[in-house]
Design brief:
The chain is α/β, with parallel strands linked by helices. The protein has one domain: UDP-N-acetylmuramoyl-L-alanine:D-glutamate ligase, CATH 3.40.1190.20. About 35% of the residues lie in helices and about 25% in strands. Strands 6-4-1-10-11-12-13-14-15 form a nine-stranded mixed sheet, with helices on both faces. It has a four-stranded mixed sheet with strand order 3-2-8-9. Helix 4 runs parallel beside helix 5 and helix 8 runs antiparallel to helix 9. The radius of gyration is 18 Å and the shape is globular. The structure holds adenosine-5'-triphosphate and magnesium ion.
């Protein structure tokens, strides 16, 4: 395949989730899975489903969980430019859901194939046609080598290519200062920043997300604040657009943010204006929550069109 237009990189995981609510992970219970997952794999798979040429750099083990991920990429048309490592097993996330909407995770990632990604995985030639690179905060935080890979990806982009950045990071192990320092180079280079609740305030030190988003907008960024069922808000220069979400029945919210980022990327590459791009991304995010599994709801263009047509006023 020709070098892709949209590139992402990072952790490749399968997700294995509790079937029932309120079954904690420290005792026997019923799981379902594996489902292909990982924030940037969800993103890139959605880009491909939406019809843009997409490539991914990461690592899986030479096992069935790895095949689960690679088969999904192959089915949806993502070019895999990563490695299959015979001496590591594929990364796994175990997830429990609780009434009230909270989730708890156990990640086998840092010491798995996913944690081996480093800057030497990146072939400069692979970036020659790139128009868009998507990075996330968790891939800047997981290992130093993963971070170096992300920074190198930015350096390899041709002139004019855009960078989107989803902070997707909670300062659980790292201090807020450490998180800010890790994210700074990505935020400085990013054309588009797509935070969720709390992240803009945390990363900028502003009192509120709104103030944090305005700070980034004043630096020339397009900022898209994801707001769950409410949709999103777009800040660009002095513009501040509230774009309402679509009404759907939420089955599983995991992955909505990543699918949303993919929708926004594709819409901007299609040449849509900010409001239309945000609306398209809202539709992609809404469809993502209607199916169980992080990537299972990633829609095709036809599904997005159908939802937008059905809820014309949304
Ligand atoms: P995560 O990191 O858990 O994947 P996030 O916090 O980054 O999610 P959300 O704001 O939860 O992102 O969801 C992203 C987008 O998906 C929202 O901005 C909205 O457009 C859409 N979305 C999410 N949940 C719903 C829902 N229940 N109904 C309609 N749209 C939704
Ligand atoms: Mg998020």
């Amino acid at each position: 395949m020709n070098p892709p237009e949209v590139i992402s990189l990072g952790n490749m995981l399968v997700e294995i989730m509790r079937v029932n609510l309120d079954e904690p992970l420290d005792r026997p219970g019923t799981f379902v899975g594996p489902f292909p997952s990982g924030d940037t794999p969800i993103y890139i798979d959605t880009v491909a489903r939406l019809g843009r040429s997409a490539g991914f750099i990461g690592a899986v083990g030479a096992d069935d969980f790895g095949r689960c991920l690679l088969d999904r990429f192959a089915r949806d048309g993502v070019d895999f430019a990563g490695r299959v490592l015979p001496d590591h097993t594929t990364g796994v996330a175990f997830v429990a859901y609780f009434s009230g909407g909270s989730r708890k995770f156990i990640f086998h990632w840092r010491h798995a194939a996913a944690g081996q990604l480093g800057p030497e995985y990146l072939d400069p030639d692979y970036f020659r046609a790139a128009r868009w690179l998507h990075l996330t905060g968790c891939n800047l935080a997981v290992t130093e080598r993963s971070r170096e890979a992300c920074y190198r990806a930015m350096a390899l982009l041709p002139a004019g290519a855009q960078v989107s950045f989803d902070p997707n990071i909670r300062p659980e192990v790292l201090s807020v200062e450490e998180v800010r320092a890790l994210c700074r180079p990505a935020i400085e280079r990013a054309d588009v920043i797509l935070p969720s609740l709390g992240e803009a305030a945390m990363l900028t030190g502003a009192a509120t997300d709104e103030e944090g988003c305005r700070l980034w907008a004043a630096q020339g960024k397009t900022v898209v604040l994801k707001q769950g069922p409410a949709g999103c808000r777009v800040f660009h220069g002095p513009e501040d657009l509230s774009v309402p979400g679509f009404r759907v029945e939420e089955v599983d919210p995991t992955g909505a943010g990543d699918c949303f980022c993919a929708g926004f990327t594709v819409a901007i590459l299609d040449g849509l204006g900010l409001r239309e791009a945000a609306r398209f991304a809202n539709a992609v995010g809404a469809l993502a929550v209607t199916r169980k599994g992080p990537m299972e709801g990633a829609p095709t263009r036809e599904e997005v069109r159908a939802l937008m047509a059905a809820q014309g006023g949304a």
